[in-house]
Hints:
With about 100 residues, this protein is mainly β. It has a domain at about 30-90: 2-Layer Sandwich (Dna Ligase, domain 1), CATH 3.30.1490. It is about 10% helix and about 35% strand. It has 1 helix and 6 strands, in the order ββββαββ. The strands form 2 sheets. It has a 4-stranded antiparallel sheet, with helices on one face. Strand 1 (about 5-10) and strand 2 form a beta hairpin. The termini are far apart. It comes from Griffithsia japonica.
Amino acid sequence: MPRWRTTWTGxxxxxxxxxxxxxxxWERDSRAFKIxxxxxxxxxxxxxxxxxxxxxxxxxPFSSWYAEQQRIQKMGGKIFKVELTAGGQMRSCGxx
Length: 96
């Protein structure tokens, strides 16, 4: 008899799906991007769009790169550097 695993699938009401644990395989992609970006200052957002000189570096998995890029650009930020790297997903590099 297979063991079943229940997982939560998103915001809102809890929707469960069941998968046999023997067939359940999570894709673990080791490809990641190390991005350096800057976001506008929230204190001067309404008066003057001034960028802070505080750069943030973050490791983003390959599969969610496009969504992260859109998030930064929609917040008015600018991406300065993108490097291909390996590491933990969505891990901050400690200089944020």
